[in-house]
User: Fold this.
Amino acid sequence: MPSPLESSAATTAHANGGGAAGRLPPDVVPVALSVDLVLLTVREEQLQVLLVRRGIEPYRDRWALPGGFVRPGEDLAEAAVRELAEETGLRHPPAHLEQLATYGAPDRDPRGRVVTVAFLALAPQSRTPIAGTDAAASRWEPVSTAGGGSGLAFDHAAILADGLERARAKIEYSAVATAFCEGEFTVAELRRIYELVWSSRLDPRNFHRKVTGTADFLVPTGRFTTRDGGRPAELYRRGDATVLHPAMLRPVPRLP
Amino acid sequence: MPSPLESSAATTAHANGGGAAGRLPPDVVPVALSVDLVLLTVREEQLQVLLVRRGIEPYRDRWALPGGFVRPGEDLAEAAVRELAEETGLRHPPAHLEQLATYGAPDRDPRGRVVTVAFLALAPQSRTPIAGTDAAASRWEPVSTAGGGSGLAFDHAAILADGLERARAKIEYSAVATAFCEGEFTVAELRRIYELVWSSRLDPRNFHRKVTGTADFLVPTGRFTTRDGGRPAELYRRGDATVLHPAMLRPVPRLP
DNA sequence: CCGGTTTATCGTCATGTCGACGATAAAGAG
DNA sequence: CTCTTTATCGTCGACATGACGATAAACCGG
Assistant:
């Protein structure tokens, strides 16, 4: 039995006459286009990814990355933002959203030719309350356990792995790590982000020198907090810098 | 008049009954999926991009990036390699091919919803003879003149710009610049690649120190050539290294 | 109130890389 | 043979980095 999308290809051929705009060739294969999201946050001292439980076949009751089909007239990033809002109850757009890659292996979806554009999103914990759908249908999962057993639907384990690698590489040479932080944060909290994303330990003194020495990375507020214990730490806000130059290189990963 | 792909959406709904694999929701919009290629090479002391002249509407007789529609059962990278072979007469696959990004603005193609996955390809000059189609239908164009006037079809000027930025960034921290070189080449020839891609001048002595000092970047052959004039230069071959660490940072661009 | 603990922040020092540039080597051109 | 061109090796100062000492400023338990 041909898949619905393939069978509809024949109807494509004669649906439209010529004209200045031209028409699509008759043998173009229609595909279904979806977006999937690797939404990462730092919660409970761990890097976690948002997963949803599938309610329908295929892969019913399996965990998957949040996503859905692109609607007519909708741009790709627009669809990603909409899915994010629908599946997480997110009011604000995520602090960072970028296209990751497109996955189009012919057999990646048993329903037919479905090509998905994956996006990487980073958000602070508090802005992602998962209040959208019922609690059982979506949850945060530590990345250390999410991809390994490959219990994920479709090729989502591979997409997650690519998203993680992108995030780990990107905080080296860009300032996106602050996307994990709330409005005001300390240097130590930012350092914890790096440590959890990289699974490695960083020297507090060298880290402090690096981030405070990079122009426009952090904006000091002049206020202090003791919420992390010890001597009061100054609070900072995200700066305008987008790139880190020189980069902050990650050490060889050692699991704690 | 609805576009052919949109009108075919209705036929999608009832084409397939249930089953373990599930079926696509009835309101999924079918899209046409294409691949487009930013194929770069260094020719005539310039960084050049391969363009093809469109023979059909829309944008008939305008220059465009080579590309075409993905066929059934074909993976994305597979389609890119096939299009490359068809439109350039290339026997070998390109020395470097990577996915660039996906472009899916709803109105990017007047014929309907066409989403394109762009690829970046780098190749040495001699391996790309453009013997495939007739000579008038495709040509090499210096990148300095290709994107500026934006005479390119569709959103190809933006795709080209993204591809150029990707190539310029990538040779900083990876070893892909050797993809522009033939089997055996001198350090000066590789340096010329960097200079032309970056539009800047590099110090021959520091460049030599950097590339010969990076492990597995270049493999010395022990043979020499004088084809560049002056003192004989040693010939090297591509090494196994894929990343450059630390990166070779590009200076601020100054046009010669 | 006081010493111990915790965390923040500042400094120091050796090392490595980089940019600028001098010096020498080895070919061809005239 | 000398001049020009290019290749390759060295040197030097500026700067970023990793390792780590030292001090500051809160808290806690007594």
Remarks:
- The CA atoms of residues 38 and 160 of chain A lie 6 Å apart.
- Residues 156-173 of chain A form the longest helix (18 residues).
- The longest strand of chain A covers residues 30-43.
